[in-house]
Amino acid sequence: MSRRAVAPVVGVVLLVGVTVVLAAIVGAFAIGIGDSGNAPEAAITATFGNEHPNQINLTHHSGDVLDVTELTVRVYVDGEPLEKQPNVPFTGTPGFKDTPTGPFNPESDPRWTAGEMASLTIASTTNAPQPTAGSQVTVKIYSEGEPVATART
Length: 153
What we know:
Immunoglobulin-like, elongated, alpha+beta, 4-stranded antiparallel beta sheet
C-alpha cells in the first residue's frame, strides 16, 4: 500500500467531520436549542403621575400579555436601586404609598395587556432614594429572572 494515498483520505475525513459539526450547530439554533430564554417581551413606558408625588405610571404599549404574578419589578432613581422594592401585585408594601392601580393591584386581572397602565407610588418617608425634579426613574421588569422590559421617565 502506498503512503501517498493516506493524506487525501485523512483530509476528506476531517472535512466531513467539520461539516457535520457545523451542520449540527446550525440545526440546533434553527430548532431553538440555542435560544437563551422564553421570556415574554413588551414595550413599556414610564411617566410621573399627576395624582400623587412620586407616582410612576407604566403603560404597556405592545408585545406579549404579561402575567403580573410572574413578574419582578425593580425601581432605580438616578441609577440607585430603591431600598424597598415592590412585590407585584401588592397592597401595603413597605416603601410604597397607597394601593397600586391596574394589574399591579391584587383585586385586578393579573394579565397586563397592551393599552393598560399600572402605577405605583414611592413612599416619601420610608423609601430612598427619593426622586426629585430632574431625576430619572428606571423601572426594570423581569419574568422568571429574564428581562422583559426597561422603562425610564
